[in-house]
Amino acid sequence: MKKINDQLEKELLIALVGEVNAGKSSTINRIIGKEVASTNPQPGETVSVDPYNIEGLEKIKFMDTPGLNDPNDENPRKTIDFIDKADIVLFFTNAAGTVFSDSEREKFQAIEKHNKNILLVLNKIDAAEGIDSLVQFIKEQTGSKYEVLPISSRTGENMDKLKASILSILKKRGKDLLFAKSMKDKSQTANRWIAGAGVSAGGIGALPIPGSDMIPLTALQVGLILKLAALYDKPMSKDTAKELIIVTTTRTIGQTVYRQIIKLVPGAGSIAGGIVASSLTLALGYGVKHAFENNIPISFDYIIEQFKKLKNRKNFKKE
Fold first, then answer.
1. Which of 136, 152, 179 finishes a domain?
2. Is 161 within 8 Å of 148 (Cβ atoms)?
3. Dihedral sign, CA of 1, 119, 121, 73?
4. 171: Cβ–Cβ under 8 A, 6 or more apart, which residues?
5. Does residue 159 share a domain with residue 16?
6. One domain, residues 296 and 233
7. In this protein, which residues make up the domain named G (predicted)?
């Protein structure tokens, strides 16, 4: 709970950099959902590192930086100074222009020395052709070290993918929760978290030593539920979390004992233990998510029902 609260208290800085007219400001407007940044394409329009916030989430700051080819010599230096502080850098290049020009490559290499949490954004794909080859070209120019995401800030194409990619990078930095709360469709984010926890639980549950999985598995499951509670603005007190742990453990104690006993069977026992652990974690995640999305009390009967369905699916092990 402390880790989650710490995430929500820290500022999240997202820098958008690139040459003038690359579509940085229009992308900010798309992500935030309203016209907050000027989209005038004239050089010098953005003359400082300006923060834009999502309403109600002031700790998320999108920083619209001056164009790297801005005629004002002071602006590029201000941009580079800010790069050091950013949690993630969105580097824009224009699909309808000279993609990743020599000057862009030079500026990119300078930025890379200050911050390696970079997502390359190929914007204006609605006005260009051969997008796949352009993406491949950018990857080759940057050593294939970074994701290259084609979008159109004008039509909104691939904006959901852009948000998902931002989340992925922020997750590695332990700062994805605040940005996830800003997304209108929280369901997709929740599903990714639940699926990831299910995979991790399967690995933990497959540990061959009986009893070795109980503490880490419980921590994983409780952590998932608390994170979902924060995502859906359903805060859980210590007492609520404690009750959730006790009831979940009590209702699944038979499966917990089974998981430990079956491990005495070489090979197949570990696989069975992994399946039980994974299916229980998925059932917990989807059950809690369903309750939060529909504003109903958490139903343990519903969770157990989902668990039984998952565990008994013939192809669950393969999945």
1. 179
2. no
3. positive
4. none
5. yes
6. yes
7. 14-124
d(CA 287, CA 282): 8
Tokens for 224, please give them: 């998932």
Give 262-307 pLDDT, tens digit per residue: 554 454 446 667 777 888 889 889 988 998 999 988 877 888 788 7
Distance, in Å, from the CA atom of 23 to the CA atom of 93, rounded to the nearest integer, reads: 8
Which stretches of 68-101 are DSSP H helices?
74-83
Query: pTM value?
Result: 0.75
Same domain, 219 and 148: no
Residues 210 and 161 in one domain: no
Average pLDDT over residues 45-55: 60
Number of domains in the chain: 2
My answer on whether 128 and 238 are in the same domain is no
Pair 124, 154: CB distance under 8 Å = yes
Can you give the length of the chain in residues?
A: 319
pLDDT the model gives residue 43: 47
Full domain range(s) for residue 298: 185-312
Kind of pairing between the strands at 57-64 and 50-54: antiparallel
Closest CA to 18 of 168, 164, 153: 153
Contact 46, 38 (CB under 8 A): yes
Q: Which domain-ending residue is among 157, 179, 201? A: 179
Tell me whether residue 25 is in a domain.
yes
- Whole-Å CA distances, 151 to 11, 161, 206, 224, 274: 26, 9, 41, 31, 39
Q: Are 63 and 49 in contact (CB under 8 A)?
A: yes
- The Cα 283–Cα 291 span in angstroms is 12
What's the token pair of residue 8?
């929500």
Residues 242, 161 share a domain: no
Under a CB-based contact definition with an 8 Å cutoff, are residues 234 and 293 in contact?
A: no
SS3 130: coil
Predicted confidence at residue 172, as pLDDT, reads: 86
